[in-house]
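Question (not urgent): is this output format expected?
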Amino acid sequence: MKKEQRYTALYERLSHDDELQGESNSISNQKQLLMEYAVSHELPSPRHFADDGISGTRFDRPAFLEMLEEIEEGNIGAVLVKDMSRLGRDYLKVGQIVEMFRQKDVRLIAVNDGTDTLHGDDDFLPFRNIMNEWYAKDTSKKIRSTFKAKGEAGKHVASSPPYGYMKDPEDKNRWIVDEEAAEVVRRIFKLTLEGKGPFQICKILEADKVEIPAYHQQKLGIGLYQSRELKYPYRWTSSSVASILTRKEYLGHTVNFKTRKHFKDKKSHYVPQKYWQIFEDTQEPIIDEETFENAQKCRTGIKRYPNGWGEPHPLDGKMVCHDCGGLMYCHRTSNGKKVAQYVCANYGKQPVGTKCSSGHRINAEAVIEIVRDTLRYLKTTIEDNPEEFIEHVTQVESDKRNAEAKKKQDRLKVCRKRVDELEKLICRIYEDNALGKMPENRYETLIRQYSREQGELNEEIDAIEAFLSEVEENRKSGKRFVDLMSRYNNFDEITPFMINEFIDRIEVHERDRKGSVQTTQKIDIYFNFIGNYSMPEKELTEAEKAEIERMEAIKDKRHQQYVLRKERGSQKRWEEKYEPRRRARLAKLKAENPNTYGIPAEEYDQEHYSRQSVVLAESVVPDF
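Got this back:
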């Protein structure tokens, strides 16, 4: 467009904070002021661009962006604003915009500031822009301090309640339960305890046509999506489900300061959890604490298998390697029949065997059988004399925790002493550096080293203090375990929900004999509330003892034959000789059982093994 044909842009902006200053800053008054100026100064073809209710720290304002596009296309010859703060309150970006106007030969006029680039540069313009930004920053600081005072008093600072709650019509600062949504929240936690992952839960809710949180709140006239059209009211997302599962508000608590906003970008930034402020029992809970904690444990480090073999195994997330402490993951193998086995995740990490000495491989169904028998034994014991059981487990747990607490207290003294020493060292090297006795590079190296060690020690101190606090509270309770046991009549079917309610973890020891098919393997079952609990050893009959000795002799003989073949170099020829027979047997088994999943419990011959957490490591492996 030719220069004489370009028009004049009249830009108006009003933020919510500007409204507080009265009518003089309104959009209508700005339009009147700018139009009168344009007419009196004979500026050509004035056209309005107005952004109402948008902060000057943001530069994604619709009318403002439209005006910039017109300038880029060469259609605007002059821009009029009431004052420079209307363009924005970020002095660096405003400076860039002014420079862009100069390059595009666009005249900038700020009426109340007396700025007109037609008469040359305004030396005071950068200072005005700095003051405009300072005003925005100061206003933001005052608003934050107001919210901080409100939040520290235990009041809700969130603009809207989380899904499952709504504001009390009679008191907007109080949250009440939205029963329809709360029932969905409870269902999500229940499905999680049954072993379902967020993606699987989404599919279940979508199939049942359960409304997503945004659509449900939109129907009630609450929430943040009142003006948005939601085309898919039943399409749940994994992130929504995961967010629900981590919200402590469902415990009846107020959780403040989880996010913060910068006065420039207005975007929410997540704050580390240690800086949150939690006020307990401020509203009616939707989820009890036990269910919430079990759901968190259930979601930690679990691999699920939604296809292939179908549902995840009930023990997922509970199996732990006794030697390295790493999680054990379920692997499905097919050896004529489909077998679920758990293997230590650390063993396979490269280089193999450096993080853990072996895979600690164990048959999953054998573990399930031990869990079933232990729960049945506990059920019988509790029914016979619940008070005696409570007294016994409380005393045992107290003895264990007290011994561990003594070690922790000794370690706490050492950590605190070292932190004090590091503080003195930091002060000393600071003085040496200030006096010129220590080179700058040496000072920076030491300060980083000391600060890092100090930070690690402070984290350890926090963890120890939390542990000691837990000991004082004595949270593990035999009474709670008895109450939990009373809700179950039998343990014929072991479900993921049942496993999550009763079991904290199962530690798997190394096999008694590595590389042997016929072997035993010890597991320790740690129950919720009562810790590690083992059944008394079963008294074996003479016939059973003789059978065990016979099986041990067979194991020894087979192992010796294997070692001898390895020494002579004939193991490979032996395997090649019996490989056709092995393949034929596998083919026969697969033909007879094409769709078998797992191994029935009756196929495990466990009568020859101790009932005190000793399980058959592998079975259904062909013998030759």
